Amino acid sequence: MDTHKSIRHHLPSQSLLFFTLFSLFQSCLCWTGLSVQYSITGFEPEYLQSENRMMELFQQWKKKHGKSYENSEELMNRFQNFKCNLKYIVERNSNRSGNSMGLNRFSDMSNEEFREKYIGKVKGLVELSQRKHTRARSVLMCDAPPSLDWREKEVVTPVKDQGVSGSSWVFSSIGAIEGINAINKGELVTFSEQELLSFNKSNYDGKGGHIRNAFEWVINNGGVVSEANCPYTTADGTCSTTKAVNSIVHIDGYGNVEESDTALMCATVNQPIRVGIDASSIDFQLYTGGIYAGSCSSNPADITHAVLIVGYGSEGDTDYWIVKNSWGTTWGMDGYIYIKRNTNLTYGVCAIHALASYPIQTTSAKSPSSAPSDSPPLPPQLAPPNPSPLPSAPAPSPPLTPPSPTPSSPSPPPLSPPPPPPTPSPTPSHKCGSLSYCLPGQTCCCLYEFLGFCLIQGCCDYSNAVCCPESDYCCPVEYPICEADTGLCLKNYEDKLGVAMKKKKWAKHILSLNKHEESAGDVTYQTLKWRRNWFAAIR
To answer: Within this chain, do residues 175 and 34 fall inside the same structural domain, yes or no?
Structure first.
C-alpha cells in the first residue's frame, strides 16, 4: 500500500545552500518556511547555481507535464514562478520534518493563481449548528482494523481531473457513490460528474458549490448515469439529455459523521467518505509525498476543497488518512495524499473532520453491465417438460376395487402422523457495551455520554437505527435526518413530511440476558406527519 517513492538527494551543505539560493533568487518575492523531502531527483547542485541550467530544468519540467505558453512574456513569467517555487521547495525539504514537496503540475503557478483556478469555496456545510440535528449515530468505538485501503478491495475508481474549476464537490460526491455502489453490488462502475454539473447549474457558480446538494440532487433525480454516457469535459460542459435518461445507480439518503477521528475511522471502515478540507496553502499546492500536516487551516469556515477518504494507515508512530484528490495523477502521490490523523486538533488537520458525509444505498439498482431481462430461467428440476403430441383418449376403464386381504397377507398398520417441525430458536440478543444488551430488531444507542464514554446504554426500536446525537430520540435508517426542532425524521432536508422520532429505551442488564426470549417485534413506523410545532410532533 506504500506509495512513497525512493528518493536520492543531491543537496550541498546548509550554509552553501542558503548562500546559493539567496544569490540566485534575490529578485523573486517568494514564500519562505520549512518542510521535508523531495522531488529534484537526478540534478546536481550546479543546476541551482546557473540561470541556464535552471532554464534547462524548466524545459524538462515543461516537457514532462505537457506545458506550452502563448508568448515569450508568459514563458518568462512562468519561469519566475517556477524558480520561486523551487526555492520554497528546497528550503522546506531541507528540514525533513514531515511531507515532501516537489515539482508537480502546479510548479509554474503562484499560490494566488493556483487558488483562483483550482480552489473554490465548498458551501453549505459550514453550518455546524445544523449538523448537530442531522449527524449519524454518535460513535464511541468500533471494531476497526489497524489499516484499511479501499483501493485494494477494488471499490475506488481511477483518479480523475476536474481541470481549471472549483468543482471538487462533484468529484468527491460521485467518488463516494461509486464506492458504496461497488461495495453493495460487487462491480466497480465510473459515474458521471458532468450530468450532476449540467443539470444542477443553480448549485455551481464557477467558484464552488453546495456539497450537500450533490447527494440531494442524485436522490431527487432518481440516480446518475455512467461516465460513458456522459463524460466529463469541463465544469461548464453539457450532458446530452438523450443519454442522461436511464440512471444506473441511485442512493436512498445520506448521513453525516461526527467530528472526531474515531467517528471518521469507524465510518471509513464501512465505505469511502466524502470530506471537505482547506487545500489553499502553498505546501498543499506543491505536495509530492509523505504524511501531510502542513500550513493549512483547521477552521471549518476556511474549507475550500472536497476530497474522498479511501482508507487509513500508520507509518511508525504517525497515523494518516489515505485521501483521493481530483487533480489528476501528476499531483501528489499519483493523485493521492496522506493527511495526518489522531491529532489534538478539534476538527483535524485541514479541518478534515468537520464536514464528513456519506451516501446511503439500501436498495438495489439496475446493473450497468446488463440490460433488463425477463424472469430468470427456472432451474432444471423445476422447468416444465417439453410438450409432446397428445395421444387419443383411451376408452374409460371400469373402476378398480382394492383386493380383499387374505390370511397370508395381513393389512399394514396405519401410518403414524409426521412429527411437528422443530420450533425455531429465538434470534439472539446483542450486547451494548459490556453490561447491557438490546433485543433483536433494536439498535444500541447511548443515553448518557461523559468524556467520550457511554455511561448509560439505551435501545432504539428500529433495526440499524440512526441514534440522534444530543437527543433522547432515534430515527429509522430510511429517514436518517434527525430534525430535533420538529421532532421528525426526514429523508431529505427539503421534505415537508417525515415520521416522528422514537424515544430511546433503557437497555437491559446483561445478567438477565438468559432469562429473556422476547423480541422487539416487527418494525413499524409512525404515520407520516407534516413538519410543525416541535412539542406537537414528538411523542
So the answer is: no
In-domain check, residue 391: no
Closest by CA position to 463, among listed 474, 454, 450: 474
Residues 239 and 333 in one domain: yes
d(CA 122, CA 354): 12
- Examine the fold and report which residue of 108, 142, 167 is the final residue of a domain before the chain moves on: 108
In a domain, 274, yes or no: yes
CB atoms under 10 Å from CB of 194, counted, come to 26
Residues 154 and 261 reside in one and the same domain: yes
Q: Which of 99-108, 140-149, 206-215, 468-477 has the highest mean predicted lDDT (pLDDT)?
A: 99-108
Q: Do residue 82 and residue 20 come from a single domain?
A: yes
Task: Let me know: does 464 contact 255? Beta carbons within 8 Å.
Answer: no
Q: Please indicate, yes or no, whether residues 250 and 333 belong to a single structural domain of this protein.
A: yes
pLDDT at 366 over 80: no
User: Cell match 444530543: residue?
Assistant: 470
The answer to whether residue 119 sits within a structural domain is no
Cα separation, 383 vs 374, in Å, equals 15
pLDDT of 171-183, one tens digit each?
999 999 999 999 9
Whether 173 contacts 214, CB under 8 Å: yes
As a whole number of angstroms, the distance between CA 17 and CA 48 comes to 9
Task: Tally the domains of the chain.
Answer: 3
The phi, psi pair for 22, rounded to 5°, reads -65, -45
Per-residue model confidence (pLDDT) at position 370: 36
User: Reduced to 3 states, what is the DSSP secondary structure of residue 277?
Assistant: strand
Most confident segment among 42-46, 174-178, 484-488: 174-178
The structure's pTM equals: 0.62
Q: Which of 453-466 are b and which e, b meaning 16 or more Cβ less than 10 Å from the residue's Cβ? A: ebeebbbbbbeebb
Q: Residue 409 contacts by C-beta under 8 Å, 6 or more apart in sequence?
A: none
Provide φ and ψ at 373, rounded to 5°. Answer: -135, 170
- Among residues 360, 376, 405, which one ends one of the domains? 360
Mean model confidence pLDDT for the chain: 74
Residues 327 and 202 in one domain: yes
Dist CA 192 CA 175 (whole Å): 10
The answer to whether 81 and 109 have CB atoms below 8 angstroms apart is: yes
End-to-end CA distance of the chain: 51
99 within domain boundaries: yes
CATH number, domain at 192? 3.90.70.10
Is 82 within 8 Å of 108 (Cβ atoms)?
Answer: yes
Domain shared by 93 and 134, yes or no:
no
**Same structural domain, 481 and 525:** yes
Range of the domain at 310: 128-360
3-state SS of 176-190?
HHHHHHHHHHCCCCC
How does DSSP assign 331-348, residue by residue?
STBTTEEEEEES-S-TT-
CA 294 to chain centre: 23
Size of the chain, expressed as the number of residues it contains? 539
Q: What gap in Å lies between CA 162 and CA 171, rounded to an integer?
A: 7
Distance, in Å, from the CA atom of 1 to the CA atom of 3, rounded to the nearest integer, reads: 6
DSSP 118-140: H----BS---HHHHTTTB----S
Structure-block grid coordinates of residue 236: 461548464
